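From the shared-data thread, chain only:
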Amino acid sequence: MVEALLAQQVTDNRSLKNLRVP
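Structure, as C-alpha cells:
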C-alpha cells in the first residue's frame, strides 16, 4: 500500500512538472 501511495505521488509530481513546462 505504501509503495502505491509513493508511486502516485511521483506520478502527480511529474504531472505538475509537465504542466509547468511550456
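The first helix runs from residue 2 to 20.
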